[in-house]
C-alpha cells in the first residue's frame, strides 16, 4: 500500500451504519417539530415525500459508485460526468452541506442536554465544541476505528427508538392526526424541503468508497438498504411523536416560542414520564454525536479527492502515514465545523444544509444521464440503476420543486455555493487541469461526426 492509498476496512454492516448514522440524528431528534409547524400532522407524509425524491439520486449514485469506487463520492461522479467546473461546485456544495449538518447535530444536542443537566446556553456551545473536537480526533485516528464506533452507537440508538415507537403505538391518540393536512399540499412540500437533509447521509458513504470492501456489492446494498430502513424508521418515529405530544408544545415549545427542538423528549414525557425524557435525551445526545462523526468522516473526503484532481492545494491530499487517514482534509473540515458551531444559529444551519443538499442531489441525477449518454469506455458499473432516464428526470424536477420552497436565505446560500465554486475553479483549478467530463466528450464526438472531412486535391 502506497503512502497515498487508503485501507479498505469497511464491510457491509459498518458501511450501512455510517450511512444510517448520518441520517439518524437530527431527522429524528430535532426536525420533526420544525416540520410539524409547517405541515401539521402531514409532516409524516412530508418525510415520505422527501424519501421518494431522494431515491432517484440514491439509485444514480449507487450505479456511479460501483463504476468509480474511489474517495470523493458526489464530487467525483459529477466531475467525471460534467467536467471540473461542475465538479468543483458540487464538491464544495456537498462538503459544506455535510459540515452544516454535522454542526446542526452538535448544536441541536444542546437542547437535549438542557433536559439532563442545568447548564447555560453558552456552556452548551462549549460542550458542542468539545464534542466536535473529539469527532475530529476520532476521524484522524482511523477510518476502521471510526466505523466500528459508528456501528455500535447506531445499533444501540436503533434499538432505543424502535422500543419508543412500538410503545407509542399502544398509547398514541389517533385524533391528533385529524385533520391531516392542516396547511394544505404546499405545507407538505415546504416541510419535505426542510426535512430533506434528514436523508443526506444515504449517499455519503460513496465518499468513503475507497475504504469499502467489495464496493461493487456493498455500496448499492448499503445505500438502498439504509434508505429503506431509515424511511420506515422516520415515518414510524414521527408518527409516534405526532400521536403522543401536545400540538401546541411541538409548535411553540422551543426557545422564544419557536418549534420544539426536543420533539422526541416531548413524546417520551407523555409516554414514560420523567424517566422517559432522561432515556431519550441520552439517546439523542449519543445519536447526534454519531451523526456528526459520520458527517466529518464523509465530508473530509471531498477536499481529498478535489486535491488529487488539482482543484485544491496538494496539502489536502496527504495521507497520515501512521493512521492512513487524510489528516489535513479532516483538520480543515473540523476547523469549519467548529466555526459554524460557535457562530451560526441552529435553525439556519438546518436550512442551509437542506438547500445545499437538494442542489447537489439534482446534479447527481444529471450526472448519471451524462454518463449514460456519453458512454465513456471506462464507465463499467457493477450495478445499473433501473428506470433510466425517467427516474433521473423525476428526481431532478423534484429537487428543483423543493428548492423553491426553502426561502430566500437558503436560496442565496445555494447561489453563493455556485458562484464560489466557479470562482475557485477559475482562479485555481482551471490552469491546473485539462480534464473534460463524459458530457463534453460526447459533444466532441458528435461534432467530429458532423464535420465533413476536407476533400483531397
From TrEMBL:
One of its GO terms (molecular function) is transmembrane transporter activity. Keywords: Cell membrane, Membrane, Transmembrane, Transmembrane helix. InterPro entries: AA/rel_permease1, APC_superfamily. The keyword Transmembrane helix applies. The chain crosses the membrane at residues 12-34, 40-60, 81-100, 112-140, 152-172, 184-202, 223-245, 270-297, 328-347, 353-371, 383-403, 409-428. It is found in: Cell membrane. PANTHER family: AMINO ACID TRANSPORTER-RELATED, INNER MEMBRANE TRANSPORT PROTEIN YBAT. This is Amino acid transporter. It comes from Halonotius pteroides.
